[in-house]
Amino acid sequence: MGQAESHNEMDLEQIQELCMAFMKECPSGALHLHELKRIFGIPASCEEETLYIETVFHSFDTNRDNTLDFIEYTAALHLILRGNLEDRLKWSFKIYDKDGNGKLDREEVKNLIRIIYKIKIHTTAINMTPNEVCDRIFELVDQNHDGQISFTEFMEGAQKDEWVMNMLKLDVNASGWVMQNCVKMT
Q1: Each residue of 99-151: pLDDT tens digit?
Q2: By CB count within 10 A, which of 12, 67, 73, 152 is most buried?
Q3: Which residues form the EF-hand domain (predicted)?
């Protein structure tokens, strides 16, 4: 690991700062959504960042107790900030698959594309509506044309087409977002 890290990857010292913020913000060890928003300085008025952090929060609340314990929190930080592409895509699929049936329908994809679209519109030139993005994803990824995207189709589609990958990945430059919001908490 002695090699230079990528520009967007957080170093361990920054991750340790986030862990210290967890312990300071919530000495009980049970971090609630409003506390996570406070750690990252998410104002209630910022709808797209609020939706994003809520989605991330619930995806890592593995025991569904509406809190993140320290293990869930550090697992989230590790995956989002230092995880490999395949693991981040698996996580993205899990989040898209709201009903947990192992397949993505158009509504599931559209709902998250709307959130991602609102965040990316500020930093990326997107000349399509969320509905058009969803239609294009299904056109490129739904190989058997059954109106649903399986996990295999999702992984293959994302890895074959850079545009699809950029639309399906939920990290939306998570390292950059976390680094920017880390400044707010210090």
Answers
A1: 889 999 999 999 888 887 776 665 566 688 889 989 999 999 999 999 999 99
A2: 73
A3: 48-83, 84-119, 129-164
Is residue 170 within 8 Å of 92, Cβ to Cβ? yes
Distance CA(143)–CA(186), nearest Å, equals 47
| Tokens read off for 51 | 């939706």
Contacts of 31 (CB under 8 A, 6+ apart): 22, 25, 39, 67, 68, 69, 73
Cα separation, 153 vs 3, whole angstroms:
34
Neighbours of 137 (CB within 10 A): 24
Nearest Cα neighbor of 171 from 42, 105, 84, 108 is: 84
> Nearest 5°: phi and psi at 134?
-60, -50
**C-alpha to C-alpha distance for 121 and 118, rounded to whole angstroms:** 5
Side chain identity at 176, as an amino acid letter? G
Q: Is the pTM for the entire model greater than 0.70?
A: yes
DSSP annotation of 6? P
